[in-house]
Design a protein that fits this description.
disordered N terminus; 7 helices; 10 strands; Aminopeptidase; disordered C terminus; about 35% helix; alpha/beta; about 300 residues
Length: about 300
Amino acid sequence: MGSFFKKPIVIIVFVIVAIGLGVFVFVGLGKAPQSLPVAAATLEPIHTVIGLSVEGRNVDAYTYGNGEVKLLFVGGIHGGYEWNSVILAYQFMDYLEANPKSLPDNLTVAIIPSANPDGVFKVIGKEGRFAISDVPISSDESPGRFNANGVDLNRNFDCKWQPKSLWKSKTVSAGSAPFSEPEAKALKDYILENNISAAIFWHSQSNAVYASQCENGILPTTLDIMNDYSKASGYPAVKTFDAYATTGAADDWLASIGISAITVELSTHKTIEWEKNLLGIKAIFDYYGQKVELDS
């Protein structure tokens, strides 16, 4: 009699378990699949105000990545006179944000798109980012080369500094002392505080890539990156700017403190030449990526 009752009980328990398992499978299959983590589609920068201009405008830096090798790209040190170098820097920012995998893991890239915002405002009449369509048709954009104190910022750095310097055949103010201008001081402080490995300055319109040097000549790494950028971009490589004597240049000051720097001069004051410069940028990325691998 006992075994007779045990069999129905076992059967009932089996049926209940089977029904429960079926419900579990049905409900589980009916749920929407859980999303797997997806890599970021964009590379968002860290924005820092590194200083203020004479007239109180921000000097902005945008940092991408967190690698141990830190590269700095600077546009617009000659303000609205070389407004195309500012747009080029912003276009580089757009590229990094849209192509996050283009930045090697071992690199950090900092971009200062407009190192002379007062000079930009003097020509463009707009603060912050602007487009080519914002640039007025003007026969003379040269006043925008200087900051609001009338100083040529690329003569205000501490390499062979003199109170007066040259721009073409003109005598220009280089400030009252090295780094007397707030924009130059902001750039100096940022470089020293962030352990920059190398810097690329965008200018126009000499159509060349120039090495930097001060009292002790050209650093070997500077020659390497000058030649690599030149070969990739098509701009001629020139070791020394000799069209006229210059003093107090930003890239030359970097050479004086042992940091490699090059100046890339676009071919006109009106063109951005993005594709050429992207190839140059990639060559710099490749150089510093390879260098880290060889040194490790």
